Please model this.
Amino acid sequence: MAIAGNMIIGQELVKGSKKAIYAVNPATGEHLQPAYLGGGAQEVDRACVLAEKAFDAYRETDLESRAKFLEQIAANLAANVAAIVERAGLESGLPKARLESELGRTINQLKLFAEEVKAGRWIGVRVDTAMPERTPLPRADLRLRHIPLGPVVVFGASNFPLAFSVAGGDTASAFAAGCPVIVKGHSAHPGTSELVGLAIQAAVKSCDMPEGTFSLLFGSGADIGTALVSDRRVKAVGFTGSRSGGTALMKIAAARPEPIPVYAEMSSINPVYLMPEALMNRADSVATGFVNSLLMGSGQFCTNPGLMIVKEAPGLDAFLSKVAGLVSVAKPSTMLTPGIHEAYELGVAKLKSNNHVQLLAQAQEASGPNQCCACLFATTAEAFLGDPKLRDEVFGSSSLIIRCKTDEEILELTNGLEGQLTATVLMNPTDNKRFTKSLVSILERKVGRILFNGYPTGVEVCPAMVHGGPFPATSDSRTTSVGTEAIWRFLRPVCYQDFPSDLLPEALKDGNSWNVPKLVNGR
Amino acid sequence: MAIAGNMIIGQELVKGSKKAIYAVNPATGEHLQPAYLGGGAQEVDRACVLAEKAFDAYRETDLESRAKFLEQIAANLAANVAAIVERAGLESGLPKARLESELGRTINQLKLFAEEVKAGRWIGVRVDTAMPERTPLPRADLRLRHIPLGPVVVFGASNFPLAFSVAGGDTASAFAAGCPVIVKGHSAHPGTSELVGLAIQAAVKSCDMPEGTFSLLFGSGADIGTALVSDRRVKAVGFTGSRSGGTALMKIAAARPEPIPVYAEMSSINPVYLMPEALMNRADSVATGFVNSLLMGSGQFCTNPGLMIVKEAPGLDAFLSKVAGLVSVAKPSTMLTPGIHEAYELGVAKLKSNNHVQLLAQAQEASGPNQCCACLFATTAEAFLGDPKLRDEVFGSSSLIIRCKTDEEILELTNGLEGQLTATVLMNPTDNKRFTKSLVSILERKVGRILFNGYPTGVEVCPAMVHGGPFPATSDSRTTSVGTEAIWRFLRPVCYQDFPSDLLPEALKDGNSWNVPKLVNGR
Model:
């Protein structure tokens, strides 16, 4: 497998005819070869035609075959680790170790979904047996299974060029559900996308999956993003990115003749609450843990701690000095793209020019292009409550400390927060449990995941994970984009009434060999 | 309990200040006392304040208490059957037997959701235990449960003044999920709504539920419908009604600062496919069964068979004569409201004036106001494919037969259908299985429920039911509004990471007494 500047449409490799896209090495600013000519309406149509054609066969693949397909993608990626990591490093500025770990996570995620496919819980089989003798009316034989929605469009994310991109969580869960996938590759890492796309394309072929099960297009949002989301054959959208990007897709999807669900993971400032006893007893370790989390990946994690909420206390100034000290000696680190770096600088500049915000610390000066210099700011609860702009995400290693006078102020401030992916509570056993209970009760309604005595960066891929939350953290709080529950985003129930047994789907037949979990007559 | 023209806001009885609403007896045209003065912004605000205030306590009620509350509503309704049925008869024109059966269904539905609450599957507990020794990184203790979305607004439907109204499926499933409910009562049956609302209000009180768990408002869509769906405290909407009404609510909900889900069940023409062998061998019974289904409830069922698709065959004309004969002797029957009757007349008039549509039969002339005279029309596949207006629902006992020349034409026509609640296949064992398989494969993607050798009217309330389907049958194909799976519409997952055990919700604690189903470490 080698990079050649191609899009992938089914088993074909295709060059577009629109403006060329070049990846940029953010560490040097240089353009990377090859050019990726953007696709247009024609490529969108071809990919959609193929996906539509593939859907009926792909959705009825048996559990073993579909699981093998996911495992084969994992195997193809595992066989190309060096090439993928090298190219991803050039395109993203992320360190090798991080990318190796991210690729490992991507591979394991595919394997986890292979297991999830085989377990068959996602079919959600329910059988209510006929009651021909029931009075006044007999009951029919009713059987329910979940079927996939149809072709899914996945927008690759810039901040996880592997785990949330071409073969990332959205793609893995959509494939697992039985949906063909068309990826709109992120323009920041087309080479990485092509390599990963080739791994999927090869798996489609060697596993005898229908050709249109997978396609990968490049191009601008205006050229292909809108066209893909608008296409009548597309039935759901997965997206990880900015609030403006996500809400734009939501609007397009809602305005279609047939509206479709958009799963957009967008914006979160991930509040961290530091309780008084924890502050008093472990200021040092909290300062270190918090700053490590803040600096991780140049702050370009969806779960980056952009807000810390603390109550005025004797030890607070000393604690903030420690945090500020750690931030001020932080090494600048390359951000993913010039655009992201620019947005970070703008966000930081806005905070600096805000009269109610104090700059506590700033990291060392940048030594190269597109570097993130971490920033630590502070403000009061009053100022935060009075200025909705302070709730905006600054994507990168910037965090705002909010000094609160009372517990009530903390609760009021929390009530005013928008939806979040995470919230973190740092407390000691001696901290006020009653207050914490009140706080957790508010947080449950605001976030997808609440953590105690940890840091929000780092999202485990497992059955109990929720990487989601109320708007604007995501567009649909009923779902998660990480963990096995993500598969439910792409499924819908269908009921089969009094079907002749030979026309029933295999999973619904009496005595079928699939052996999936069933709810029979409500038990 | 007696009718007094009141709205219900928590434990208060309130009179509005807007234009008076009077129910109309559709069988006579007379206005029914009392007047219901419509509510406005003030009442919406009061109901929302109370619902918001009730939410935290109501959502954490234990399984037994919440189930008892649902059972108490059922008991209060059962104690008032005569009064409710009498008033509902006056307001809807529906016969007593039908209303008694509908009330029985409503009561049983509440009991079924009480059982569903106790079974605890809806909490969807997942536990992934900590792995402190794992390398390179330890795994945290992760626990997932589903929590209710928040206060829900339910719009009562006109066609089931009991089963889809104040204490109907939307309300029962939202209560079961842990959501306070504000009902916007349908203006066609305010008296029935008030009686049923009083039954719920009394249950809230006797079960010690928080006051704002339930409110019932009357008023125009412009006065209170929009305000309710726009209110920031409302987190989901249930609706059964017209396509225009449902899509209007979807737009309002999507335009909010925080968009919320709308579960609108709207429009369906429920195609019935009659296969050649079935036509040949049991024309008589099919004709009778089909016409009975068409006439049921004056055709005012969401699952009314508005379309029959048949292939040209020697017996077809004879069969159609039989169906026409049955329709022509059908007795006119009172429709629910003058508005619905008017819309039916308009729909029928449009079909009559369509050059490509033939009137096969029309029922006896109306003998009173607002009566539905059943109509049977026929057209060709070609004409149907060429005129999208022929796909519009005509709410009432009107059906359109589509004569097809070939199997391919049937499949093409099916591919062109919009989303439906149901599709029905009438076939004999000797009918072409291969063709039926192709047909079912298309239908799965178009509908929520596929039936063989039955008729679509009649929706069982049970675990395996799906009363849903792709747009415009509903606004969200991932859900059902009938059956126990309806509870999932009002839930979202939250993950609890490394929680101190005394802060964990009861269902997530080790060794808790709730004894609900759990997925532990993926098993």
Notes: The CA atoms of residues 73 and 146 of chain B lie 24 Å apart.
